[in-house]
Amino acid sequence: MRKRKKPNHISQKDWDAAEIPEWTDEDFARARPAKEVLPPGIYNALVARRRGQRGPQKAPTKVALKLRIDRDILAAYKAKGSGWQTRMNDALRRGLKA
Fold it and tell me: Helix or strand or coil: residue 47?
């Protein structure tokens, strides 16, 4: 087992007294999901979405890719502010219909 570095906020006496063995295969076999062992209120608080966090994606509809575009075209889209990728996607969609 590798030696772990002592954090500054823990005294050397407490660090030396702490004995935390590594998990064995038996420990992992006995482990149960947090949802089964925690009270519902605590579990729900731990898994609840925080303000500003994104929720799960309902259906992945977009694909991340690398696209080479002329500098002036990119500058023109970015100059109009946030949402430039959506506007570019909309322009490409209109081009498909033409």
Answer: helix
**Do the Cβ atoms of 88 and 77 come closer than 8 Å?**
yes
Compute the average pLDDT of residues 58-69.
85
Per-residue pLDDT tens for 20-51?
788 899 999 999 999 999 999 999 999 888 88
**Model's pTM, two decimal places?**
0.42
d(CA 69, CA 67): 6
The domain ranges of the chain are: 12-50+68-97
E-strand ranges in 1-98 read: none
